Amino acid sequence: MPRQTLNSVFLLLAWPAVLGSLLSGCGYVVGSPYGAEVRTVHVPTFSNDAYKAAYTNDGFRRGIELQITESVQKQIQLRTPFKLADDNGADTRLTGRLVSVGKRVSNQNKYDDPRELDLSIGIEVVWEDLRTGQILAEKTVPINPHLAQAVVTTSFAPETGQSLATATQDAVDQMARQIVSMMEVPW
Fold this sequence. Notes:
This protein has 187 residues and is of the alpha/beta class. The protein contains 4 helices and 7 strands.
């Protein structure tokens, strides 16, 4: 057989194998990672049990549930095909309960002034189908280095101009991305 014919036969036989290996098992999804049966989501304001359970009157614990709710709604609009809807017209409802908010000093100078602090947020989320009553997803999402090492923690350093407000917004945005990722169809 001529050499050119052998190369052609090899390419013809190898091409389906190469294509099959590229398309299988790589973690890629053809189409949307979100279920087509859900079109609308109602996201009521998350409850803040962390503020209710606090022994002190820490001002940073109040209102964080509003920030989380707004960030989750924005992430749904940006990353998913779902539309936000009122409770009456929605296919599903995504509810959340803020269970913990903590701030601790992770580094201090010799005068006991904080140089770096960690902010941790814990939340419980339930996504339910309002048409059937079925729970589509449920998760407790901690942002705390002591509870889960794989989850992101927000640190901030007041000496460099960072504040509790910027750290809170960073943690809220991370939380919202995790919650919306939970809404993807498992593969």
